[in-house]
Amino acid sequence: MLVQKNVPLQAFNTFHIVAKAQALARIACESDLLGLLADPEWAQTPKFVLGGGSNVVLTGDVKALMLKVELAGRRLVQETPAPLWWRLVLAKTGTTWWPGRWHRATQAWKTWR
Length: 113
Fold this sequence. Notes:
Helices cover 19% and strands 33% of the residues. It folds into two domains: 3-69, Uridine Diphospho-n-acetylenolpyruvylglucosamine Reductase, domain 2; 74-111, no CATH class. The chain has two helices and six strands, in the order ββαββββα. The mean pLDDT is 81.
C-alpha cells in the first residue's frame, strides 16, 4: 500500500478548493484498507474518509490520513414487480451516480428480464 505525502486535493472535491492532504492512501479494494489498518505506522493515525468529494467542503489542509475510497461497482439487491419498478441498489463508495446514468441503468435492468 502506497501512502502519498503532501497531495493536492483540488481534483478530489467538487468546488476545487485548494488544499493538501499530509498523507493520502487510495483504497481500491478491501484488502488495501485491511492492510493499511494492520500497518503499525498508520493503525492509530486519525483517518479522513473521502469518496467522490461531492459532499465535502475543505477549509484547509487535511492533517489526518486521508483514505480516498475508489471502490467501484453496484448490484441490484431487490426489485419489485411492475408497475412500481422499485429497486434497491447497493453501490460502493467510489461509484459515481447522476440522473442520466441512473436512468440508463434502470432501463438496462428492465431489458435483463
